[in-house]
Amino acid sequence: MAQLLPKVGGIFVQAEDELAAINMVIGASVAGWKAMTATSGPGFSLMQEGIGYAVNAELPLLIVDVQRGGPSTGQPTMPSQQDVFQARYGSHGSYEIIVLSPGNVQELFFLTVDAINLSEQYKTPVILLTEEVTVHLWEKIYIPDPGEYPVLPHYTPSSHNGEGFLLESQLHDERGYNVANDPEQSAKAIWRLINKIRNNIDKIARVEIKYADDNPRIFIASYGCTARSAFAAVKMLRRDGYRVGYLRLITLWPFPSQIIRSKLGDVDTIIVPEMNAGYMAELFRGLGYNVISLPKLGGEMPTPEEIYNTAKGVAP
Amino acid sequence: MQQLLDQIRIRLMGLGGHGIVFAGRLLGMAAAMSGLDSILTITYSPEQRGGWSRADVIIAKEMVDYPLIDEADIFLATTQQAFSLEFKSLRKGGVFVYESTIYKPTITNEKDYVIIPVPATEIAENVTGRRLTMNVVLVGVITAVLEPLLKEDSVINAIRGMTRRAGKLDASVQEMNIKAFRAGLDYGRKYLQGLR
Predict the structure, then answer these.
(1) Among A154, A184, A203, residue at a domain's last position
(2) B26 to chain A: nearest residue by CA?
């Protein structure tokens, strides 16, 4: 980024720490620039206050969190998916946020663009949540020509009486005036921030479903790099005659409950491999499915064989 | 061998500075440029100087799903350390390539593997006058193992397309690498012919 951004008219700043980084990104967004920052688990924790600020001030920006194993300094250079809930609710207060989970290097490219587009469309920070495995991979990708892939223009707040605008981190009304002491107006302000995401889940959230044509009653559901192992496992299961489907969450938050329910139909069991203590498995359980959680901690990806063996034990 | 497998898993390992990552990038790029899928993961030991580096390349006709190598079909080790650490990851019947002017490995079940000793540093020095093209000589040998899946022209194209941080490599460096590659390919082809 440091080498490439200046060549295309961008600016790269090496911040002194993550607190500075997130606040520089906030400042850049207000000042009319599309801005992003990238970090790993501990840095992402430091950025949480700024993320909340950007949610409340409705600033489009992108934060990339390349997850390592944790907690604390944890396992530098080792992959994990342990930040899925930090990404969702890491900052204080009630809010909703958009979190995308790329499955490969090609998607790192396209979902970065999508994430920025979503941030501009919904005027909110968006998080690209990925893992060490994915970002250190070298693989084949297609880079579209300028103009080929949709890119939204940057949103800047309109000026107030031609004299700039009010930027308020306390709860505020649509003019930017502080309403923090007004319970009714405050509630309205929080609900508006929440509902601009919740009411648009169908437009925001995406899942990828494969091997579903013969209505399998068992699905393996995953996301990010773990989905690569899951997909390899489903291929192996299909080759051996087991009816097992494949689901990948491209959008982690907002969680695409309705889409999953409507697309999966009569599924009994969902196997959820993930590199954390079984967080997303709980979400599938909440949808009423029988869920087999396959949590894996320690810094290694689950292998296709591990997932295969679990699925084989329950598949018809 | 490659016709029997869905994908070929290649583990390259040696000393930092041996050009292991460059070799991995070359093989991966060559495969990608010839219509195959390829994926490369790079691992280093924690030492700042004198540690090992490893490049794992998977080459496949279909998209590679699981990106890591648990078991290798081809293992290249340019140092004793690399051999000691990772020879165990080579599957039975796999191909073992080593740099024979740097070390001599002790292998207990020699018959379980196809073993190709390559005096790559010597070949590099003779052909290009530069020992540091040793890694590209070894890419040539591995290409000989992978033929016809991986073609000579694809690797040469990859060498021409190779970049480093400052941009493309100088034409003279490219030509030197192509010479080294051809010498390695030639050595590999002859060696494999001798095994048949």
Answers:
(1) A203
(2) A138
**Disruptive mutation site among A107, A133, A134, A140 for chain B (greatest number of B CBs within 10 Å):** A140
Q: Which residues contact A75 (CB under 8 A, 6 or more apart)?
A: A68, A69, A299
pLDDT, tens only, A245-257: 999 999 999 999 9
- Partners of residue B54 on adjacent β-strands: B13, B43
Same domain (yes/no): A88, A143: yes
Nearest CB among A136, A137, A228 relative to B65 is that of A228
CB contact under 8 A, A138 and B66: no
Of the residues A149, A169, A203, the one at which a domain ends: A203
Write out the two tokens for B173: 């460096």
The yes/no answer to whether this complex scores an ipTM above 0.90 is no
Per CATH, the homologous superfamily of domain B2-195 is Pyruvate-ferredoxin oxidoreductase, PFOR, domain III (3.40.920.10)
pLDDT mean across residues, chain B: 92
Do the Cβ atoms of B42 and A138 come within 8 Å?
yes
Boundaries of domain holding A260 = 205-314
Between chain A and chain B, the number of residue pairs with CB atoms below 8 A apart is 42
User: How far from the centroid of its chain's Cα atoms is residue B148's Cα?
Assistant: 16
Q: At A277, which CATH number? A: 3.40.50.920
Q: Is residue A258 located within the same domain as residue A268?
A: yes
pLDDT above 50 (res B24): yes
Q: Which of B138, B101, B149 is nearest to B22 (CA)?
A: B138
Under DSSP, the state recorded for B170 is P
Which residue among B28, B64, B165 sits closest to A3, beta carbon to beta carbon? B165
Q: Are residues A40 and A138 in the same domain?
A: yes
Confidence (pTM): 0.93
- Tell me the mean pLDDT in the region B102-122: 96
Three-state secondary structure string covering B154-180:
HHHHHHHHCEECCEECCHHHHHHHHHH
The whole-angstrom separation of Cα B183 and Cα B58 is 24
Q: CA nearest B59 in A: which residue?
A: A139
A183 preceded by a cis bond (ω within 30 of 0): no
Chain A contacts in chain B segment 61-90 (CB below 8 A): 64-68, 70
Query: Which residues of A fall within a CB distance of 8 Å from B37?
Result: 139-140
Taking only the tens place, the pLDDT of each residue in A34-58 is: 999 999 999 999 999 999 999 999 9
Same domain, A238 and A122: no
Residue A208 parent element (H or E): strand A207-210
Give the end-to-end CA distance of chain B in Å, rounded to a whole number: 13
Could you give the residue ranges of the DSSP H alpha helices within A140-289? 183-198, 201-204, 226-239, 257-264, 279-286
**Using an 8 Å Cβ cutoff, are B7 and B150 in contact?**
no
